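Deliverable D2.4 — example input (C-alpha cells):
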C-alpha cells in the first residue's frame, strides 16, 4: 500500500526525539526500549494492578475534553494514552474512508502516518471486530491476518488493534505498534481495551457537544443579526414621513410613531393580525363612505401576494376623526412565500392642502378668501402686493368693499349677490391700492367654496388678474393703429394725388411719365399694405374685423372686380361663370378686397398664357365663390401654411415673382378672416393636374335673400 504522506499532516514527536520533548497532547512522548516495554522515562508500561486507577484518571480527563466538544483534542488524548498504557513505540487513531484506514492522529514512531493510508487490511468493520473489541498480532511476519509489507513500512512487528464504536456505529480504530515481535501481551491488550471501551462513546459525545456549541454560536450570531435587522427596520419605519407598519397574521404589529398616533397611543404593539388592525382603521371608500370589502382592502391584497395602492378614509385615533389616506401595501416574501406585508399610509388631505397652499402662495394672481358675509379671511402675497397690504392681518382687519374703487362698489355688491345666488361671477372692474389710491383694472372671478363632505357653501373665493399691463398694451396698440391709419395715410394720399395730377396733365416727358406712374403704383401698394396691417392688428391682436353689412349682389361685385383686374392685366384672360341668385347681406368693400386678393394671387402665380377661372355658385342659403388657376402645384409644406401671417417659405418654393411674398404674408390671412367674419369658411387645394383652387363659402346672412 502507498506510504506517501499527506500534505497537511500535524506536527508530532518522532520516536528518537529527546525525552524533554512533549507530544502534541502536551504529555511526555513515549520512546520504547529495545523490548518495547518501557516508557520514555525508562519506567515500565503501566502495570495491571495500576490500570483501574490510571483508567479512572484517563476517563475523567477524556470526559472533560469531550464535554467541551474538543474532538481533535480528545483524539490526541486517546492516542497518547493508548501508547502510554501499552508501552508501544507508536500509536495511530485511524478512520475508515472508502474502505481504507487513514491515519488522523498519531504519536511516536507512527507520527508520520497522519493523513496517509495505513495499508492494513484489518477489516475492523467485519465479523472479527464485532466479536472482539480488541485483538492483537504477536508477529506480523507470521500472522496471515495482516499484510507484511504494510506492517514493515509502519515498523510494526507486533501490533494491537481496538475498535472505537458507539452502538453500531464505528467511529475510529486505534492501532499501537512495536518493532519487536511478542512485545504485547494480555496486559497491554486489556489496557488498550480499557481505552477503547469508553473512547467511542466519548468521541460521539464530543462530536455532539461540538455541534451543539457551534449551533449555539450560530444562534448567537443569528440573534445579534436579528437584533441589528430589527433596529434597522425600526430606523426605516421611523424615517418614513407617513404612517408605516409591518404586519403578519401571527406576529405583533411593528409601527413608527405616526402609525402609533393613527392607531392610538400604546395600541400598536398589542395588535396581532389583520382583523385587529382593520378594526382600528375602519377603512371606507371616500366616494360612498361605505366599508371596503375585506378582499379589496390593500393590506388583505398584499397578504394575498398583490401590491396595492388605494385612497381610503381611515379612522385617526389621536385626531378623533377620519382622514383621507393613500395606502400602499406591499407583500413580504421569504423563499417565495408571503409571510407579511409592509404598509405606508400618507395623509392625502394634508398633502393636498400643503400643495394647494404652496401653489396659492407662489401664484402671481391675486387670490383671496372671505366669509359668506364678506369678512376678509385670507389674501396671498401677490394680492397683498397688488392692493398695498403690508401683512395678512392688515387685510383681515379691513373692509372688503374698501378694496374696490368707489365708482365700482355697486358693481362689486352686485357681483357678491350673484355669487351667493348662482355660485360664481366673472367680469371686469377696478380695485383700489390701499396706500396710493391707484385704480387697478382687474378681471375678477368670484365663486363659492363648499364643504367637502356636505357640499354646503362655507366661504367665498376670488381669483383676480391684474389688467394694468394689458390695458397699457392695448393703449399702445390703439395708438399704433391710429398712427398707421391716420398719420401715415395723410401723406400717402398727398403723394397719390400729386402723382395722379401730374399724369393727367400730360405735359411730362416720357421718362417723367413713367416715373410718376411708378410713384402712383407704389403709393397704391403702400396703401393696401397699410390696410392689411390695420386689419391684421384688429384681427390677431384685437376684437376682430368690423363689418358694415348691407344688401349686396355678389354677382355685380365679382363683375366689377374682374373688370378692374383685366384693366390692370390687359395681357391676361379671366373667365367668369355665375349660376343662381348671388344676393345676400355682406360687407361689399370687404368682399371686393377678398376677391381682388385671390385673383391677384392667382394671376401672379399662374402661367401667363393660361386663363384664371372665377365661378359663383349660389344655391340655397349659401354662396360659393371659386377662383382657380392652372400651373405648378403648391408644395404641401407651403399649402398647410397658406393662411399663416408669419409664414414665409424659402424663395425656391415660391411660385411666381417676388410679389407672391406679399400675398402669402398678410393678404391670404386677411381673406380668411373676412370669410370668418361673415360666418363662412375658406378652403384651398392644389395639384399638378387640377391646378390651385380657392373656395369661399359664404352664408347669405342672418336672413336669406333671393
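Example output (designed residues):
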Amino acid at each position: 500500500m502507498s506510504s506517501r504522506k499527506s500534505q497537511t499532516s500535524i506536527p508530532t514527536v518522532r520516536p528518537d526525539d529527546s525525552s524533554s520533548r512533549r507530544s502534541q497532547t502536551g504529555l511526555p512522548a513515549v520512546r520504547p526500549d529495545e523490548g518495547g516495554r518501557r516508557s520514555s522515562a525508562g519506567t515500565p508500561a503501566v502495570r495491571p494492578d495500576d490500570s483501574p486507577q490510571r483508567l479512572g484518571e484517563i476517563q475523567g480527563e477524556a470526559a472533560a475534553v469531550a464535554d467541551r466538544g474538543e474532538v481533535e483534542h480528545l483524539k490526541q488524548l486517546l492516542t497518547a494514552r493508548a501508547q502510554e498504557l501499552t508501552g508501544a513505540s507508536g500509536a495511530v487513531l485511524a478512520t475508515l474512508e472508502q474502505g481504507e484506514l487513514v491515519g488522523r492522529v498519531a504519536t511516536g514512531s507512527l507520527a508520520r502516518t497522519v493523513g496517509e493510508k495505513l495499508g492494513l487490511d484489518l477489516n475492523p468493520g467485519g465479523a472479527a471486530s464485532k466479536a472482539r473489541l480488541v485483538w492483537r498480532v504477536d508477529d506480523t511476519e507470521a500472522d496471515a491476518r495482516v499484510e507484511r509489507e504494510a506492517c514493515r513500512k509502519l515498523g510494526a512487528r507486533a501490533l494491537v488493534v481496538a475498535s472505537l464504536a458507539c452502538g453500531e456505529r464505528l467511529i475510529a480504530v486505534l492501532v499501537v505498534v512495536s518493532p519487536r515481535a511478542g512485545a504485547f501481551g494480555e496486559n497491554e491488550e486489556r489496557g488498550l481495551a480499557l481505552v477503547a471501551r469508553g473512547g467511542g462513546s466519548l468521541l460521539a459525545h464530543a462530536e455532539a457537544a461540538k455541534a451543539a456549541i457551534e449551533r449555539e454560536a450560530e444562534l448567537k450570531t443569528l440573534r445579534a443579526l436579528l437584533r441589528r435587522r430589527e433596529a434597522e427596520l425600526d430606523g426605516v419605519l421611523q424615517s418614513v414621513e407617513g404612517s408605516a407598519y409591518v404586519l403578519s397574521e401571527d406576529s405583533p404589529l411593528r409601527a413608527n410613531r405616526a402609525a402609533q398616533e393613527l392607531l392610538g397611543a400604546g395600541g400598536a404593539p398589542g395588535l396581532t393580525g389583520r382583523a385587529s388592525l382593520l378594526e382600528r382603521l375602519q377603512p371606507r371608500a371616500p366616494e360612498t363612505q361605505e366599508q371596503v370589502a375585506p378582499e379589496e382592502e390593500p393590506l388583505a391584497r398584499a397578504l394575498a401576494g398583490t401590491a396595492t395602492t388605494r385612497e381610503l378614509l381611515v379612522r385617526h385615533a389621536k385626531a378623533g376623526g377620519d382622514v383621507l389616506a393613500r395606502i400602499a401595501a406591499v407583500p413580504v416574501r421569504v423563499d417565495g412565500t408571503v409571510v407579511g406585508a409592509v404598509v405606508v399610509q400618507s395623509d392625502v388631505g394634508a398633502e393636498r392642502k400643503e400643495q394647494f397652499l404652496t401653489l396659492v402662495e407662489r401664484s402671481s394672481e391675486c387670490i383671496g378668501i372671505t366669509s359668506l358675509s364678506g369678512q376678509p379671511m385670507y389674501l396671498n402675497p401677490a394680492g397683498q402686493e397688488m392692493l398695498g397690504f403690508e401683512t395678512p392681518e392688515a387685510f383681515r382687519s379691513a373692509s372688503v368693499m374698501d378694496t374696490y374703487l368707489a365708482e365700482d362698489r355697486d358693481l362689486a355688491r352686485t357681483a357678491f349677490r350673484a355669487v351667493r345666488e348662482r355660485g360664481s361671477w366673472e367680469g371686469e372692474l377696478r380695485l383700489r391700492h390701499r396706500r396710493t389710491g391707484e385704480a387697478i383694472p382687474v378681471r375678477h372671478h368670484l365663486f363659492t367654496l363648499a364643504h367637502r363632505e356636505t357640499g354646503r357653501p362655507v366661504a367665498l373665493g376670488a381669483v383676480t388678474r391684474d389688467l394694468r399691463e394689458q390695458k397699457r398694451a392695448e393703449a399702445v396698440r390703439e395708438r399704433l393703429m391710429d398712427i398707421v391709419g391716420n398719420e401715415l395715410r395723410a401723406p400717402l394720399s398727398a403723394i397719390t394725388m400729386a402723382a395722379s395730377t401730374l399724369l393727367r396733365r400730360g405735359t411730362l416727358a416720357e421718362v417723367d411719365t413713367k416715373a410718376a406712374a411708378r410713384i402712383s403704383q407704389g403709393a397704391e401698394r403702400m396703401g393696401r399694405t397699410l390696410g392689411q396691417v390695420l386689419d391684421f392688428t384688429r384681427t390677431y391682436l384685437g376684437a376682430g374685423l368690423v363689418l358694415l353689412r348691407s344688401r349686396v349682389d355678389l354677382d355685380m361685385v365679382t363683375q366689377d372686380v374682374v373688370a378692374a383686374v383685366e384693366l390692370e392685366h390687359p395681357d391676361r384672360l379671366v373667365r367668369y361663370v355665375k349660376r343662381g341668385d348671388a344676393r345676400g347681406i355682406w360687407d361689399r368693400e370687404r368682399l371686393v378686397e377678398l376677391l381682388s386678393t385671390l385673383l391677384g394671387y392667382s394671376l401672379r402665380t399662374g402661367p401667363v398664357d393660361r386663363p384664371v377661372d372665377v365661378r359663383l355658385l349660389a344655391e340655397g342659403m349659401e354662396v360659393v365663390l371659386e377662383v382657380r388657376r392652372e400651373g405648378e402645384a403648391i408644395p404641401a409644406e407651403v399649402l398647410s401654411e397658406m393662411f399663416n401671417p408669419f409664414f414665409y417659405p424659402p424663395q425656391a418654393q415660391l411660385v411666381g415673382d417676388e410679389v407672391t411674398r406679399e400675398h402669402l404674408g398678410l393678404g391670404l390671412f386677411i381673406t380668411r378672416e373676412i370669410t370668418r367674419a361673415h360666418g363662412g369658411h375658406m378652403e384651398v387645394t392644389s395639384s399638378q393636374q387640377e391646378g390651385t383652387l380657392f373656395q369661399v363659402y359664404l352664408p347669405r346672412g342672418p336672413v336669406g335673400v333671393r
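Residues 472-541 form one domain.
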